[in-house]
Amino acid sequence: MKSILLLLMGCILLFVLTIITGKITFAHQYKIRSKTGIQRSEYITIGKIKQYIQIRGQDSSNPVILMLHGGPGNPMAYYSYDWQAELEQDYTVIHWDQRGCGNTFYQNKTAAKPTLDLLLSDLDELVDHIRLEFQKEKVILMGHSWGTFPGAIYAGQHPEKVLACISVSQMLDFKKSEQVSAQEAVHLAYAAGRPQDAYEIEKMLEPIMKCRKFDKPEAAKLLKFRQLKEKYLPSQYSSKMLILQLFSPYMTFRNLRWMFSFGSLIAANSALYETLLADQKSTMYDYTLQYETPVIIIAGDCDWTTPYPMAVKYFNAISAPYKKFITIRNTGHIPFIDRKKEFSEALSDALCHVIHRL
Questions:
Q1: Range of 192's domain?
Q2: Which residue range or ranges hold the AB hydrolase-1 domain (predicted)?
Q3: Do 168 and 181 belong to one domain?
Q4: Is there a single domain that holds both residue 180 and residue 301?
């Protein structure tokens, strides 16, 4: 018994030392060393509360990209150091833990919960803060998944402040996305000779399509439904994610705690999820299709979380001074991690075209 305990303690110690070594290594590897560069994490006052931002770039005079994370409630600042390294050569990249999420949540536990209107107000304050600090007339907005929803709405409302709107894995219609991906999963389940699973997917979809109130039990049902679907769909989430998170030089106790705070995530963001489940103003088709700012949409061709065919259809429906659709092959919902080089090169090419048009 004693030898087993010692072995267990040794394994835990080895694991901890490995994590610490990895964090130190990556902190050194990804350190911004340019004299004109910027590398900063801080809390600033937005919407009368302290909200967390992370800033990285090799030259602070470069154009600014403001990244809007997915979820609602899934921060990405702490694992961004790897995939955005190439972009940092030509852009200053700012991440924001939105109200009700991650570091911002723990700094303001009693703050008003985010609604779409409140989040858009916070975003407007943040954009103005960035424009003032970095002396920029406009910023580039880049959203991922849920972040594309407020990002695209804001770009439609404030073209005078947005240089370009980039949507990665564009969220268009939450309920329709679940329906479309379920249809694909059912097809693949039948093809795999698993009619019982196909039936179960169809059965589980019905209450989700009718759901209007989103709490922890409803979220658990949605999670179970997605797990069953994803048995048959292509891989949606990168296997590299956990390594990037654990070895991140930005990973704090608050980040780690948030990863396992499913209940807090749902409770804090319930109003946003209920907006997406509502019958009105719940899809991107309820907002402008005529953009006054350049639009770049990037999608993995195997994405069924925010289905690729839906993104193509939306792209064809919108108008913009310049628009570009970028397909990242053989990847799912997080193309910037699965195919980071291809992603960065394609995005940089598109942004160069936008900037040269000015």
A1: 176-229
A2: 63-339
A3: no
A4: no
